[in-house]
Amino acid sequence: MSAPEPTPPPDGPAQQATPVEAVTPVEPVTRENPSPTTGSAEPGAPAQSGGPAGGGGPAEPGVPAEGGGPGGLGGLGRLVLAAGAAVVLAGAVVVYLLITRAGGPPPPPGPGPDGGARPGAGGASLRVLSNGVLSAVPLQRPDGPRTLTAQRCDRAYAAAGTIGCLRPVDPLGGTRLAVLDRDLRERRSIPLTGFPNRLRVSASGRMVAWTLFVDGHSYAASGYSTRAGILDTRTGALAGSLEEFALTVDGRPYRAADVNVWGVTFAGDDNRFYATMSTGGHRYLVEGDFTARTLRTVADRVECPSLSPDGTRIAFKAAVGGDPARGWRLSVMDVATGEVLALAETRSVDDQAAWLDDRTLAYGLQRSDGVNDVWAVPADGTGRPRLLVPGANSPSVEAPPGGP
User: Fold this and answer.
1) How do residues 254-271 score in pLDDT, each as one tens digit?
2) What rounded mean pLDDT belongs to the chain?
């Protein structure tokens, strides 16, 4: 899995996207204190009091020198003001760099809703998290302008105008699912307990599924515990734990205390879904029925599935040699035949890949310094990986309003 991103605080409703703006240093401006008698002195010009600017000579009777009276601003005052302005400017630069550090140099500014254009207008967007900030880049130009919003998430996913956001964890280990609309207005909020790990929205935008770590933090270790749930945003129906669904393993009813379910991906009918289920040290691909509240095993050793847009293939991470401790190889399984194809990405991918289209997968990889990048690779085993969005994770494709 990808390491949790930094966790900034949640925002209020109806937040609007705002473009990244570069910080442009400005010269500190000091204003002389005008006097009814003397007025303001130009920098470097003699003061009207008869001495150098700043009150170097004697003042007129009854009129304080420009640098010496209660309302005046002398050389020391100007130095203090300039130093204060420099401190404020330095602070702004530090904050800006903290926000954009994950992506290296700041991306070019992009238009946001308050500028008359929402991300995706005129073309599909790639939604990502940039150091925990919900962002968007043009799908056809992922190295182009990156639009940042005020929304903070540990995991995010968008489809058909619905955005799922797992909010940053509070000190007591609590998070919440926020369901946002295309304009970033919060439509639903569900309190949850655990650490955000996986998130998916169905292609129609109706269904939202999440996975949290309750105990542990890695699928490569033993002793972890997960909790996965699904929300129907249209009816409000909620399944708080998929472990409560009736489970069938190899055609037989099955119950065990060590069952864990994670990594949901939805079929096109908004009822069926696939997920990973583990029990007794074994990991299965299960097919679920949300209405019937059932799960059944359909394949072995398929983790973090992601169903292709045409419904014919499942991308997943395959444990190398069947041992998660050795890492995972990004692979694709044919749903009809069960045939598995290893992809050209040979680095260990601990993520739930997202389909950019029927031919390409996107996924997050973590650098040695802890920063995440989004990569892409062909889904047919050809080609080679390419860097898609630096300093980002949680990729998903969002079509423009009225788009497919």
Assistant:
1) 999 999 999 999 999 999
2) 78
Task: State the Cα–Cα distance between residues 104 and 288, nearest whole angstrom.
Answer: 41
Q: Is 76 helix (H, G, I), strand (E, B) or coil?
A: helix
Cα distance between residue 205 and residue 277, in whole Å: 24
The reply to whether 220 and 192 lie within a common domain is: yes
Write out the two tokens for 193: 């307990």
The answer to whether residue 404 sits within a structural domain is no
Q: Which residue from 159, 101, 154, 99 is spatially nearest to 127, judged by alpha carbons?
A: 159
Confidence of residue 86 (pLDDT cuts 50, 70, 90): very low
- 283 and 136 in a common domain: yes
Tokens 């990405």 — which residue?
345
Residue 174 within a domain: yes
Radius of gyration from C-alpha coordinates of the chain? 28
* Residue 324 · residue 312 · CB < 8 Å: no
Q: In terms of domains, do 56 and 186 share one? A: no
Q: What is the pLDDT of residue 255?
A: 96
CB neighbour list of residue 329: distance below 8 Å, 6 or more residues apart: 317, 318, 320, 342, 343, 345, 346, 348, 349
Quote the tokens at residue 45.
Answer: 């010009």
- Running DSSP on this structure, what letter comes out for residue 324? G
- At residue 165, φ and ψ (nearest 5 deg) are -140, 120
d(CA 323, CA 17): 43
**Strand, coil or helix: 87:** helix
CA separation for the pair 240, 227 (Å, rounded)? 8
Whether the pLDDT of residue 308 is over 70: the answer is yes
CA 293 to CA 287: how far, in whole Å?
11
CA 197, 332, 264, 397 dihedral sign is positive
Counted domains in the chain:
2
Q: Is the pLDDT of residue 101 over 50?
A: no
3-20, pLDDT tens digit by residue?
Answer: 444 444 344 334 444 443
Which residue range(s) make up the domain with 37? 20-106
Pairing of strands 294-300, 162-166: unpaired
- Give pTM, 2 decimals: 0.71
